[in-house]
Amino acid sequence: EDQVTQSPEALRLQEGESSSLNCSYTVSGLRGLFWYRQDPGKGPEFLFTLYSAGEEKEKERLKATLTKKESFLHITAPKPEDSATYLCAVQALVFGKLVFGKGTKLTVNP
Amino acid sequence: EAGVTQSPTHLIKTRGQQATLRCSPISGHTSVYWYQQALGLGLQFLLWYDEGEERNRGNFPPRFSGRQFPNYSSELNVNALELEDSALYLCASSLDGSTDTQYFGPGTRLTVL
């Protein structure tokens, strides 16, 4: 069964304090790994798609990387507005279905 | 470009009733997906519709059903509501069934009393 585990469950950072979120996965055949950001009571906002080991993508203070067993979301010099829950999801060979982890709740204090 | 829209924003029902949730995909997208986000459980895949057909279904009972209309909008129906159906129901759309990136709407908060 396809599974996604995210760690830590919660992370508190001071503004400017860089860190990384982890997403480990087991999947029958990976079509893609996705990162989303979700604010309370809202729908997930798409951040990145990664397709193969070694791939990296960047957007502002965020950088996502992928290996054969896990992905990292690196946050450089975070700001309070980066506070949100970050979700990781995988899509296996079965079309359509995304399998999500439970997320990492990030709080950035000013 | 307008994003995925969902209605209603909130829905309150009592146990045993039926709920109908609606979703309009991004213009040009033909695939629609439904997910349930219950407290503490994360997003769980419910249904995938593409070109009017149900393509895949998650591990949910048959009282969860839906359809996709010719304009690609979609409806999720939940019959015989139970207390544990209380959750945020999220709709997502993608360009077509083979395109991976799914874009989510704001969700419908269903409360079952």
Describe the structure.
The complex is a heterodimer of chains A (110) and B (113). Chain A has no helices and 11 strands. Chain A has strands at residues 3-7, 10-14, 19-26, 32-38, 45-50, 56-59, 62-66, 70-75, 84-91, 99-100, 104-109. In chain A, strands 2, 4, 5, 9, 10 and 11 form a 6-stranded mixed sheet that branches. In chain A, strands 1-3-8-7-6 form a 5-stranded antiparallel sheet, with no helix packed on it. In chain A, a hairpin with a 2-residue loop joins strand 6 and strand 7. The N and C termini of chain A lie far apart (41 Å). In chain A, 34% of the residues are buried. The mean pLDDT of chain A is 95. Chain B is mainly β. In chain B, strand 9 (87-94) and strand 10 (103-104) form a beta hairpin. In chain B, 37% of the residues are buried. Chains A and B meet through strand 4, strand 5, strand 9 and strand 10 of A and strand 4, strand 5 and strand 10 of B.
Essential attributes:
heterodimer; A: 110 residues; mainly beta; six-stranded mixed sheet; five-stranded antiparallel sheet; B: 113 residues; seven-stranded mixed sheet; four-stranded antiparallel sheet; 53% strand
Rg estimate of chain B, integer Å: 13 Å
Order of helices and strands of chain B: EEEEEEEEEEE
Point out poorly predicted stretches of chain B.
none
The most extensive interface, with participating residues per chain, is: A-B, 24 and 28 residues
- Oligomer description: heterodimer
Helix content of chain A: under 10%
Mean pLDDT of chain B: 94
Distance between the termini of chain A: 41 Å
User: Would you tell me the overall average pLDDT of chain A?
Assistant: 95
Structure in a nutshell:
The complex is a heterodimer of chains A (110) and B (113). Chain A contains no helices and eleven strands.
What topology does this entry show?
The complex is a heterodimer of chains A (110) and B (113).
Chain A lengths: L2 E5 L2 E5 L4 E8 L5 E7 L6 E6 L5 E4 L2 E5 L3 E6 L8 E8 L7 E2 L3 E6 L1
Parallel strand pairs in A: 2-11
Antiparallel strand pairs in A: 1-3, 3-8, 4-5, 4-9, 6-7, 7-8, 9-10, 9-11
Chain B lengths: L4 E3 L2 E4 L5 E6 L6 E8 L3 E9 L2 E5 L6 E5 L5 E5 L8 E8 L8 E2 L3 E5 L1
Parallel strand pairs in B: 2-11
Antiparallel strand pairs in B: 1-3, 3-8, 4-5, 4-9, 5-6, 7-8, 9-10, 9-11
